[in-house]
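Fold this sequence, please.
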Amino acid sequence: MASQTSENAMKAWQYTSIVDGDIAKSLTLNEQAVRPPTTLASDQLAVEVITTSLNPVDYKLAEIPLVGSLLFKKPATPSSDYSGRVTAVGSGISDLKVGDLCYGRLEKNAQFGALGQNVVAPKEGAVPLPSGVHPDSAACIGCAGLTAYQCIASNVNAGDEVFIHGGSGGTGTFGIQIAKRLGCKVTTCCSTRNMDLCKELGADEVIDYTQVSVAQTLAEKGPRFLLCVDNVGSPAELYTRSHEFLLPKGKFVQVGAQIGMSTVASLMSRMMLPTILGGGKRSYQFLGCTPNREQYATIGEWMREGSVKAIIDEKFKFEDASKAFEKLKTGRARGKIVVQVAAA
């Protein structure tokens, strides 16, 4: 964990360019980094970071050639999900005060990310930490927990059947639990080694994608699912055959995707190509999560009551942040990867 430096500086992991297309190789620990601006808008608060959790978007955007260099002002500090202690509060925030613990997500493409000791968070991305919830767990909610919630909650009712493609990652582990908390029957898929984890989280049926075709296995069940959440983005046939397992009023929501022109073409086709011209036969949405205080608070409350928990694959010390990115980029993490920036 990091120790504080001088009053006007902080420790932060930063990059000024991406080396060999790899953010893990590009990060350096600056022990005298400039702190974020101290003048707050009415809907902002300053936070001393305790824990941050990493998400694929934290490296995928930065690593896009040319485009990635334009998205973030340099030197940039990655990671948006956080938990921490409030150090200053804007005049428009009434439910948090200096010294309170909070959690949430920073604004998109923020220069001062949560792999620095201090951040400025927007009101919509900061909520009080419920009693009994550990900051490490709360730090996992920001992207993965909220994305899972927004994919599922508005699209289902109790008793509906949901398929979650990719159940053992960060969003998938939250998705299984959220769907069960909402009273749904859940089918998911994962590799052999993660099947027990998905069952422990409440999945009613788990498909081993290393042994069978997921799309074919679902098609054999017939159109019984109201919702398919795709956390992976492949294979393509999962969507093109979705009418074989989704009800006529069913919906296909995609979250995961690889960065590239082929992905862009695929997404445009799914969103715009009519069925008569070869497009999909079920409603399609590509979802990027939108900060929502009420929804953050709901997930935090579910954590407090014990119906939802953060699955943490590994906790890294602040000094090992680049190793945390190396682990994340393997794509084999079970749940979330967190970096402990300061003592809770």
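The longest helix spans residues 293-305. The first strand starts at residue 9 and ends at 14.
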